[in-house]
Design a protein that fits this description.
The chain has 459 residues and is mainly beta. Helices cover 4% and strands 41% of the residues. Bound molecules: CU-O-CU linkage and copper (II) ion (CU) (2 copies).
């Protein structure tokens, strides 16, 4: 395979960040005169941040901020991003949840050669689906994502949705100590269990921020879990708040109440509609019992808003279960099999799929796909978690429909990531309509890096 798009950075070293629609628009108002195409120059570079007051954290950032610059594009348009690597090491960008051609998927040695320090790469693809997505590297992920290389990618509906206000809330729990210094992004003992957790929980990099929202309005809250490890158990503490789910992982659902709590695993997103209560009300947005942010309602001169209509469906092909072929995937804990010699050499393999552990240091793993699907074939995957730790199972390149589970009631919906609970078996279905070699992995980053990844070919 040759990677002709790879280019040497020459003469553009001084460029800053240029982005249409970029920056901190806090209240999102439907933009009538939105341009038809978006062009961004996105630089990844070290950035000293003050996550802990009075202390410096040596983060890595996209577009001078972590979480990274918010990228926006309209559904059906071309997204063109010139990515410039000013990090001390090689990297790539993967566009999580976007159905795109393999060459744009950002997986090293499968989609493209890694982008070396000082080089740039032009990503360019059509975005078929509206919704809340994100981007991140697919190289030395525990450290690169851990240091802050994660960013929101918002695809606006082709026709303006009924929401006049929105907020993008990026959740991340930083692996830093009380002085802001990074702690280990992956500890073997933790990688073999639930994954290595950070310590400082943040929303848009602020610990327990106050979010001011206009009273009486319905605000779209786009919550993105950009963390390496943590599953956020989202709730608003009070049962009389009117908050409804509008989309899961980018894809619209029939609006329904948030309910008691929603478990948002690493890589997952949820779009909520919140009817902001009367002026002066303070609501905690929480992870289980822990406060993530305070929502404060402030005066608004606009007339009280009605609930927006459901968001229009994305054009995802509907799998036909009557003619689907069934494939089984067992996710197993294999830590007991890890050899001391491997561990001594820093090769940790604690997890496997159907008896195969991905070797993060072997560039040829994707040459041995765990399954080969026929282009345009219909498939049911039976996902079986044989361990007591949960895994957010993610597929590149295609959306899939969650059908059912032996653990909970499911209203079938399309997604790119399913949080497979402990010892759960779930069924998903898809039409294999995107040719390529697609990563299929757990999004707990240190599970992925210690074996829980495979390639699925569509030919
Ligand atoms: Cu968020 Cu392999 O992806
Ligand atoms: Cu992905
Ligand atoms: Cu996992």
């Amino acid at each position: 395979m040759s990677f002709t798009r790879r280019q040497i950075l020459a003469g553009i070293a001084g460029l800053g960040v240029v982005g249409l629609g970029a920056g901190g628009a806090r209240y999102w108002l439907g933009r009538v005169a939105a341009p038809k195409t978006h062009d961004y120059e996105l630089i990844a570079a070290p950035l000293d941040m003050e996550l802990v007051a009075g202390h410096v954290t040596p983060a890595w950032a996209y577009g001078g901020q972590a979480p990274g610059l918010e990228l926006r594009c309209r559904q059906g348009d071309m997204l063109r991003v010139r990515f410039i690597n000013k990090l001390p090491e090689q990297t790539t960008i993967h566009w999580h949840g976007i159905r795109l051609p393999l060459e744009m998927d950002g997986v090293p040695y499968v989609s493209q050669a890694p982008v070396l320090p000082g080089e740039y790469f032009d990503y360019e693809f059509l975005v078929p689906d509206a919704g809340s997505y994100w981007y991140h590297p697919h190289t030395t992920s525990a450290e690169q994502l851990g240091r802050g290389l994660v960013g929101p990618l918002i695809i606006e509906e082709r026709e303006a949705s009924g929401f006049k206000h929105e907020r993008v809330l990026c959740l991340k729990t930083w692996h830093i100590d009380a002085q802001g210094a990074f702690t280990a992004f992956s500890v073997p003992r933790e990688a073999a269990r639930e994954g290595t957790r950070g310590r400082l929980s943040t929303v848009n990099s602020v610990s327990i921020p106050t979010l001011e929202l206009p009273a009486g309005q319905v605000v779209r809250l786009r919550l993105l879990n950009l963390d390496n490890t943590v599953t956020y158990r989202l709730n608003l503490a009070s049962s009389d708040v009117d908050v409804r789910i509008y989309a899961l992982d980018g894809h619209p659902v029939q609006p329904r109440p948030l309910g008691k709590e929603y478990w948002l695993g690493p890589g997952m997103r949820i779009d909520l509609g919140l009817k902001v209560p009367e002026v002066g009300t303070e609501l905690p947005l929480r992870n289980g019992p822990l406060r993530l942010a305070t929502i404060k309602s402030v005066a608004s001169s606009e007339p009280a808003a009605e609930w927006p209509a459901p968001l229009p469906d994305n054009p995802v092909a509907e799998p036909d279960l009557s003619r689907a072929e069934t494939l089984r995937f067992n996710f197993e804990w294999a830590a007991a099999l890890a050899s001391p010699a491997d561990e001594a050499a820093g090769r940790y393999k604690y997890w496997q799929i159907n008896g195969q552990a991905w070797d993060i240091n072997d560039k040829t793993c994707a040459d041995r796909p765990i399954a080969t699907l026929k282009k345009d074939g219909h498939y049911i995957f039976v996902l079986r978690n044989m361990a007591q730790y949960q895994h957010p199972i993610h597929l590149h390149g295609m959306a899939f429909k969650v059908l059912d589970s032996n653990r909970k009631a499911i209203i079938p919906y399309f997604t790119d990531t399913y949080l497979l609970g402990k010892n759960e078996t779930a069924r998903i279905a898809l039409v294999a309509d995107n040719p390529g070699v697609w990563m299929f992995h757990c999004h707990v980053i240190d599970h992925m890096e210690t074996g829980l990844m495979a390639a699925i070919a569509v030919v």
